[in-house]
Amino acid sequence: METAVKETAVATPGKPFLMRLGIGLFALGMVAVLAVFIMFAAGLENLPVWLSAAAGIITPLGLGLGIIALVHEARRKN
User: Fold this and answer.
1) What single-letter DSSP state applies at residue 43?
2) Nearest to 33 by CA among 7, 53, 11
3) Looking at the whole model, is its pTM more than 0.85?
């Protein structure tokens, strides 16, 4: 016989603003990195400086903000 298990939904709050910002910046930076690699593979030599700067600055900035948000969330729970 099958037994019915009643699952209770745990209310999970949304991600904090800093985490969402970090995820967005990291994703935008990864798109820039992908664009730089594709353009370089296509044979373009003079890539736009703003694109290379975005790939080099936005990606680690987003990663850093995400890590800061995770540490802040973990400390707040304890």
Assistant:
1) T
2) 53
3) no
